[in-house]
Amino acid sequence: MVSDIHQILQEAIKAHQKGNLHDAVGASGSRINRLGEIKAPTLVIHGTEDPILPLDHGMALADKIPGAKKLIMEGVGHEMPEALMPEIINEMLALFRATETQKTD
After folding, report:
1. Within this chain, do residues 51 and 93 fall inside the same structural domain, yes or no?
2. How many C-alpha atoms does 5 have within 13 Å on its Cβ side?
3. Do 8 and 49 share a structural domain?
4. Residues 6+ away with beta carbon under 8 Å from 59
5. What does the buried/exposed string (b/e) look like for 29-63 if buried means 16 or more CB atoms within 10 Å of the residue's CB?
6. Does residue 1 share a domain with residue 49?
7. pLDDT value of position 69
8. Among the residues of the chain, which ranges form H helices?
9. Is a pLDDT exceeding 60 seen at residue 21?
10. Domain range holding 90?
11. Same domain, 14 and 56
């Protein structure tokens, strides 16, 4: 599996370096059917105005990952604005703390 991930990343990097974002995104094909295998605590952060991946993509991602939390950022595109970093960090910390609490229970 690690070698598969390495190959996927290498293909995406090559496509990105050529300047073709769509090829970079699609270099490895869809992994949507494997999202249910994710066991790690997951926070899906998505902007409502993302021009590259529409909001419904982020929602579908979160819906397919067991127990995933969502942080929907109103008016945000495909970037993480500096002004919203405190909110993003707080959400990440809350997820980390909840995970640690579950481990000790």
Report:
1. yes
2. 2
3. no
4. 46, 70
5. eeeeeebeeeeebbbbbbbeebeeeeeeebeebbe
6. no
7. 95
8. 2-17, 21-26, 55-64, 85-104
9. no
10. 39-104
11. no
Q: Are residues 48 and 4 in the same domain?
A: no
Count of positions (residues) in the chain: 105
* Cα dihedral sign, 59-32-30-91: positive
User: Does residue 25 sit in the same domain as residue 68?
Assistant: no
105 residue type, one letter: D
pLDDT single digits (tens) 50-78: 988 899 999 999 999 999 999 999 999 98
Our count of domains for the chain comes to 2
Question: What would the two tokens of residue 43 be?
Answer: 């926070």
pLDDT (0 to 100) of residue 25: 58
